[in-house]
UniProtKB/TrEMBL annotation:
<comment type="similarity">
    <text>Belongs to the type-I restriction system S methylase family.</text>
</comment>
<dbReference type="GO" id="GO:0004519">
    <property type="term" value="F:endonuclease activity"/>
</dbReference>
<keyword id="KW-0238">DNA-binding</keyword>
<dbReference type="Pfam" id="PF01420">
    <property type="entry name" value="Methylase_S"/>
</dbReference>
<dbReference type="InterPro" id="IPR000055">
    <property type="entry name" value="Restrct_endonuc_typeI_TRD"/>
</dbReference>
<dbReference type="GO" id="GO:0003677">
    <property type="term" value="F:DNA binding"/>
</dbReference>
<keyword id="KW-0378">Hydrolase</keyword>
<keyword id="KW-0680">Restriction system</keyword>
<dbReference type="InterPro" id="IPR044946">
    <property type="entry name" value="Restrct_endonuc_typeI_TRD_sf"/>
</dbReference>
<protein>
    <submittedName>
        <fullName>Restriction endonuclease subunit S</fullName>
    </submittedName>
</protein>
<feature type="domain" description="Type I restriction modification DNA specificity">
    <location>
        <begin position="27"/>
        <end position="185"/>
    </location>
</feature>
<keyword id="KW-0255">Endonuclease</keyword>
<keyword id="KW-0540">Nuclease</keyword>
<dbReference type="InterPro" id="IPR052021">
    <property type="entry name" value="Type-I_RS_S_subunit"/>
</dbReference>
<dbReference type="GO" id="GO:0009307">
    <property type="term" value="P:DNA restriction-modification system"/>
</dbReference>
DNA sequence: GCAAAAGGGTGTTAGCTAGC
DNA sequence: GCTAGCTAACACCCTTTTGC
């Protein structure tokens, strides 16, 4: 097991632990989120976002995927704003995606805008956790590709939300771990490049 | 070792329904 | 009749697995 995969496993365990111990006021998701259906009619945004299971909402250009679509159709795309959460086509497998940027996304997505009860990004880690994905089973229907999440039913589910101070504390802990893993990944990538370079030099 | 099949990830779009 | 919203079906590409 590499340091990075061990770090990721530890991160998952910490997320499980932190979010399972929360003692706060109970809210339904419907009280915490508003479903937004804002379309890009004025062609205000041209950067198209895609939901990746690993990194949340990212620029589609960064995905290295050749997706065929009519660019003139982006007026019907939905606007995702910074801080929004997105229910995407694979949410039943990878949880909900958090957006760190503003842009447009496929009309097949559901956009959730958090209320002021939530700190920026507070649920971004929880929505990717095994605990949360498991909880989606009761509001998921269909088989394989046809699977989708009943947003209406999900909005009725309950969750405990701690004070904003506690939310910030949890975020601080998780972000520091996240940063550590990112640094290790960057370091591993540098070492790999260096190895390739040295191997090339050996055979010149 | 290699080709084919299967599976996974991300998305578009056609068709249906409801509201105006 | 038009438009918007929703959903199932399907497209496309890449990676992994399987069988020979």
């Amino acid at each position: 097991m590499t340091l990075i995969s061990a770090g990721k496993s530890l991160m998952s365990a910490i997320i499980e632990k932190l979010y399972s111990k929360i003692q706060g006021k109970e809210y339904s998701y419907g009280q915490l989120f508003e479903v937004i259906n804002e379309r890009n009619k004025q062609m205000e945004y041209s950067n198209i976002l895609a939901a990746s299971q690993e990194k949340g909402m990212v620029n589609r250009d960064d995905l290295n995927l050749d997706i065929q679509f009519e660019r003139s159709n982006i007026d019907i795309y939905k606007i995702v704003r910074k801080g929004d959460y997105v229910i995407h086509l694979r949410s039943f497998q990878g949880g909900f995606a958090f957006s760190n940027m503003t842009g447009v996304c496929s009309p097949a997505y559901t956009i959730l805008r958090p209320s002021t009860l939530l700190e920026y990004g507070y649920l971004s880690y929880y929505f990717k956790s095994y605990r949360f994905i498991k909880s989606l089973i009761i509001v998921t229907y269909g088989i394989r590709d046809g699977r989708s999440i009943s947003v209406e039913e999900w909005l009725n589910l309950k969750i405990s939300i701690p004070s904003k101070e506690h939310q910030l504390h949890i975020l601080k802990v998780l972000r520091s771990f996240d940063l550590k893993i990112e640094n290790e990944e960057a370091y591993a990538s540098c070492l790999s490049n260096q190895k390739q370079y040295l191997l090339r030099q050996m055979f010149i």
